[in-house]
Batch of 3 targets.
Target 1
Amino acid sequence: MPRVLIIGAGPGGSALALTLLTRGLDPASITIVESRAFPRVKVCGEFLSPAVSSLLINLVSDAELLRAGAARVDRLVLELGPRERVWPLPDPAWTLSRRTLDDLLLEKVRAAGADVRQPERVADVKYAGDRAVVRLASGETLAVDAVVHADGSGRLDPAGPTPSRRGVVGLKCHFRPRAPIVGVRMRSARGAYIGTVQVESGLATCALVAKSALVARHAGDADALLAELWPDFDPARREGEWLSCGVAGSGYRRPGHPRSLRIGNAAAAVEPVGGEGIGLALWSGSTLGDLLAGAGEWSIDELGRAERTLATKYRRRLVARRPACRAAAAVLVRPALVAALWPALTIPGLSIRPWYALTGKPARGPTPTAVPSRS
Ligand SMILES: Cc1cc2nc3c(=O)[nH]c(=O)nc-3n(C[C@H](O)[C@H](O)[C@H](O)COP(=O)(O)OP(=O)(O)OC[C@H]3O[C@@H](n4cnc5c(N)ncnc54)[C@H](O)[C@@H]3O)c2cc1C
């Protein structure tokens, strides 16, 4: 049976392993390597796109999600200073911290008998003859038929990492709000946009993408930055440290060797404003799992066909999502522009279905009923 090594146990890597296991691959032929001990906190807004709700509950049942503390959000709130505009979501979304979600998914992979190496780091990958040889930081080497880069960057693939967007930084912390946060809230600020949602255990997530110059102006002090962008944020209610990271952004990046494959952020990354990153990681992991499960002996030709099919599906999935998310981010970091658009945004009955559809979310369902807004 062909052997696969998956680098990274984020949502992409775990979704791939679970799909392969469900499709009958021998658990002993699947190795997943994760450098961090779980549970771990990760920079992310922790909004799970409704585009993958059904896929998510195929991997983890809704009962398990609810037991883990996941919640449903049914509205989007746009904030501009003290003003807000509320839209009911055509299809509700799940929220759950990455601390819990990634652990839940990986525990399922472990329970199904796959070879989980954690904490362990893949140090490098070499292609020798008809195999890929993976060297772990512990010194062990493993020869496999395919390596899947699900490490969030694709750094170890011969084609190199997905580029990060220049001049912006991603930041995130958890905090304990005075009252539960209702809906997913998106705040427009000068040089930044901020997303907040309620997650489990009475905590909420505050995630933002900010211009690096703005962060530098506050000498990297995220509490001071928030005091400027969102004066209602109370740093005394923060739990844990601020985390920061680069913000990836690219179309589908083809792998640099026929025995190398890429999924999740290592394959492509859209602007975080759309809340599509986890969904794309789950979708690409599960799609590649189906393709590999049907790819015979994983010869170079069979792997090449699987990769080309994934590439086509990926590009289709990104065609509207990337520009729609880029445009939304470009508007949100310009509060003066949002203010100019405000009268149009507050037209009674204005639906967010078109935005939902452009970012790949299901825009069907009953007509949402109006929700009162503060303007
Ligand atoms: C500010 C911000 C807010 C965001 N908000 C949202 C949101 O609300 N909703 C949403 O859907 N998306 C959001 N995203 C995007 C989302 O976080 C990513 O798209 C998603 O994490 C990608 O998942 P992945 O499985 O591809 O990779 P990752 O989640 O990055 O997982 C990769 C894993 O690989 C491991 N790893 C790395 N290198 C190695 C190695 N050499 N060996 C072993 N293991 C390794 C890492 O430890 C990590 O656990 C946001 C991103 C940012 C920056």
Note: The chain has ten helices and 16 strands.
Target 2
Amino acid sequence: VIGDGWPNLTRGRAILLTLALLGLGYLLLQTNTSPVQISTWRGNAAGSAALFVGGSIAGEAQMQGGLGPAPGGNVDVPFGNPLAVSRTVLTQGYGVGSHAPASIWGGLDLAVDGDGDGAADPEGTWDMPVYATHNGIAQVRPNTWPGGNYIAVTNSVYKTAYAHLARFAVIEGQPVARGQIIGYVGSTGQSSGPHLHYEVWENGVNRDPTDFGALEGIGR
Ligand SMILES: [Zn+2]
């Protein structure tokens, strides 16, 4: 019954050995995949689902709706909420606190109210996708200070910056399109909790992202 190469094994032992090896393989597989399994991505998936409970539109469409269409179809001008979810919460405004002086540090801090209580919470914010608000070329800068994992999207006129990311979805020099996922929200660099720090620059001058639709579609 057992092949010639297994002369000392009874059928029962062979079965047990096979089961043990399968079990070991399973454990190794679990161990190898656990960093991904326990990452906040799974939590985010649940959080995202919660965000769209009661929504009449499919999740993805609603997220696109959060970013909104580019005014005049001009995808080279930044526009919209880079988190692209209606439950985005402004946790620090333009030109105040660590965003002063605005000419240097101007930007908005955005987080997500995942549980619908009206306040941002880490569970709903961690690892949320971050969308480019205009077309450009990605500059990817890991481990900067104070921006942590930082991406800038630049074109001939505009630069947008996305700071404190958990991880990147694009590489240095990659052309990105408006609405493309470029990274995921984290708390890297000078940050007390997961949020996106978002900046808009026009011809090298810092601008208030609110003037570029960053808070539109929020709170619906
Ligand atoms: Zn900030």
Note: The chain has five helices and ten strands.
Target 3
Amino acid sequence: VHIPLTFVLENLADHAHLGPTLARLHAAEWGHLYNGPGSTWNEELARQEFADMQREAIPMSILAIDPSTDALLGSISLIADDELHGFEHLTPWLASLFVLPEARGRGIGSALIEAVMDQAARVGSERVYLFTSGQQGYYEDRGWELIDTASAHGHAVSVMTKSCTPATR
Ligand SMILES: CC(C)(COP(=O)(O)OP(=O)(O)OC[C@H]1O[C@@H](n2cnc3c(N)ncnc32)[C@H](O)[C@@H]1OP(=O)(O)O)[C@@H](O)C(=O)NCCC(=O)NCCS
């Protein structure tokens, strides 16, 4: 396995050919969470969502890329609505943070979060929201605060928030 020493952050809108790869990875990681009654999210829909991502506006996706091979290392999205029942009044949402297993533990996840917080601040947001079904500790270690618990497609999730205004980070 080639282990990269460095990574660069790029906008998905500038690397649109990676959309289908992202859709496959994300469907494999999170598909089970959405396989419930009344839910139809799958790789095909993920591909469509990635095709609709913007460059300097919400929704957007940011990629981590190995500059020596152009291989995808990870991604994150900033979206207006993450379809969490009861929380539709909150916006925007950090969503689908994913780092490839062989690239973990090198700060890529943290860098992707920081990039999304910068972008959220740039489009005028004061805080960002997320929900997670297993990584509450990861976000708490990075200054996120638990504000509620909820159920997403039958799975217990933690709803969290963090200010994205530069002075508070
Ligand atoms: C969570 C994830 C994005 C982290 O990516 P990463 O690039 O390894 O993150 P970083 O390098 O910034 O941070 C890694 C550190 O977080 C720690 N960590 C990972 N998961 C954690 C958790 N649930 N609770 C606390 N710490 C955690 C690691 O042990 C590591 O610690 P170290 O730096 O002391 O060795 C990656 O593991 C992943 O893609 N997981 C599968 C998808 C997922 O769970 N996404 C988030 C859910 S919303």
Note: The chain has four helices and seven strands.
